[in-house]
Design brief:
Layout lengths: L3 E4 L10 E6 L5 H12 L8 H9 L8 E6 L7 H18 L6 E7 L3 H11 L1
Parallel strand pairs: 1-4, 2-3, 3-4
Helix pairs in contact: 2-3, 3-4
Amino acid sequence: MSEISFVSEFLHPTDSSSYYADILVVDSKDGLFEELNSKLAFPYFGFNWDALWDLYCDFHWIEQRYINIYHQGITQMPFHELSVYLGIVVDSCEERKNYSQHNVHFIFNSNEKDFIMDVIKKKQ
């Protein structure tokens, strides 16, 4: 899963060929949706999991080829919501390999690595 990584501190490079979205700490699906919609400037969004899946599979509205989505903290979300979200992250990474022109990198706080990896492993 090279599209998923963990860092203790996310530094915003000044590289103009990349798009950076810094997602603040969230503790609910609605909070996550608000942050993603705001930071990724979705052209449309139904504020549901299916809509997020569609957007994560096709970042056509972002001109930069490289997209970095840094999550400051997500493990305070209810377990089921976190599990669904991480499933979408993993599945969309696989889906984009088939046709996408974008290279999307999901970055999470290293303090949450063990928990997130356990959730992902349970989804597989």
